[in-house]
Amino acid sequence: MNVEQARAWIAAIAATVEAEAETLTRLDSAIGDGDHGANLKRGFAAVRTALEGFEAHTVGDVLTKTGATLISKVGGASGPLYGSAFRAMGKTLTSPDVTTEQFGDALDAGLAAIRKLGGAQPGDKTMVDAWLPAVAAFRKKGPQAAATAAEEAARATTDLQARKGRASYLGERSIGHQDPGATSTALIFRALA
Amino acid sequence: MKKFINDPGDVVAQALAGLAAAHPELRVDPDNQLVIRGDAPVRGKAGIVSGGGSGHEPLHGGFVGLGMLDAACAGEVFTSPVPDAILAATRAADGGAGVLHVVKNYTGDVLNFEMAAELAGDEGITVETVLVDDDVAVQDSTWTAGRRGTGATLIVEKVIGALAEEGASLKDVAATGRAVNERSGSFAVALTAATTPAAGQPGFDLPDDEMEVGVGIHGEPGRRRAKVTRASEIATLMVDAILEAKPAQGRAIVLLNGLGGTPLLELYLLYGEVATILAGRNIEIARSLVGNYVTSLDMAGASLTICHADDEILRLWDAPVRTPGLRWGL
């Protein structure tokens, strides 16, 4: 991945988040407070503006800027979580062109940042459930497999009982609803494929 | 959706502009969406900052002023504010004695306030945090995000606001805030869902003859669904849930709070039932408050908060306060 491809990835995320905002909000209304789609749409719109005219020398520059903008524009839980993930990824990618292996390491760093900040374990019905298999699939088979793995994992959160985030307040009643955070994670990996 | 709005994206900014117009004694920072006490920072006083998603008015911006908050940051509707805004509020409130963050226990609020506290620390501002988690409807176990912060937030903010006004140290103010939270329990029942301007439709479907028991202040569904029943039975259910989680006898501050869409006629009726039940449980209502204080937009429903108070808490509760949402003793 080079700097232009990194920009293209972020632009693709912004486009898919905008297109799917209503779906994310609908999922979040069922088990959260219904702001996930609107928040991410606002955040990535701000990222798009921030990246216009921004001079990026490395892939990391693009991702770090993305992360910082998400933190300062999104709010909620998804702002700090996705923001920290992109910043953590950005910090590891310090050249204009990065290998697939380096990008895999960066995805690992992003996942680690999310887990450290949010404290979620696999199976808690959060974005971690989609990130984990996506990163593993990326390492073995690349971006297309990562996107598919994230989508399958997001769907599989439907049967889980939430133990972190706002959905956890519902207890057993959270079962039967797909997690909005895992769903937006699948969008991010689909944009990479 | 029928609401007095211009554009769903600008609701919070335009509401703050209106608040500023109505209350010239306060300052509003439109860029960071802050409400700031007119004379802030008060030299030598521990600053108190709170905030969270908008839609709970008058919480928190309506509680900025003498005897309560120094600054409040308003996030988007039902979305916690961002670290930059919380940091700006913290700077505005810092009179050199440090700043206390009053944070309701929601993942987003906790994360953003934590980040802001770190940034403030880097600037040399001492920050303490009081986490409010009074909602007994949520099982408090290591497997959940823990209890939510709801109605007790008002009682915490009022009591510690008075203490800070007297010149108490940041550590003492924080300790008292934690004690008030520990002594408080809340429970809410909703009759309808809230409609956020961004979503444009109710957050959940609730049949006409059903209520959501143990609902949160964002309209997130609660413990269970049940058939709507008589007010006396709803009052019993609320009191039982709170006293089971926070058992005590003696004096209490009782807040019967409307969630935004319930008329005072019904709130007073419900309060009357609560008062009768508490008398039978050896709880003396030392102070009471009935009205819309910690709302959930247009959600019909009510939350009950019982704070088992001691002399000191009651003294601080009675101390003067001058804010848009709470005003007495002056």
Automatic annotation (TrEMBL), chain A:
UniProt keyword annotations, A-Z: Kinase, Transferase
EC number, as in UniProt: 2.7.1.-
Signal peptide location: none
GO molecular function: transferase activity
Protein name: Dihydroxyacetone kinase-like protein
Chain segments annotated as transmembrane: none
DhaL domain ranges (all copies): 4-193
Protein source organism: Catenuloplanes nepalensis
Listed InterPro entries: DhaK_L_YcgS, DhaL_dom, DhaL_dom_sf, Dihydroxyacetone_Kinase
Pfam families from the UniProt entry: Dak2
From TrEMBL, chain B:
Alphabetized InterPro entries for the sequence: DhaK_1, DhaK_dom, Dihydroxyacetone_Kinase
Residue ranges annotated for the DhaK domain, each copy included: 7-328
Transferase is among the record's keywords: yes
Classification via SUPFAM superfamilies: DAK1/DegV-like
Keywords: Transferase
EC number: 2.7.1.-
Highest taxon listed in the record's lineage: Bacteria
Catalytic class of the enzyme: transferase
Gene Ontology molecular function terms on file: transferase activity
PROSITE patterns: DHAK
NCBIfam families: dhaK1
Protein name as annotated: Dihydroxyacetone kinase-like protein
Species in which this protein is naturally found: Catenuloplanes nepalensis
Phylogenetic lineage: Bacteria, Bacillati, Actinomycetota, Actinomycetes, Micromonosporales
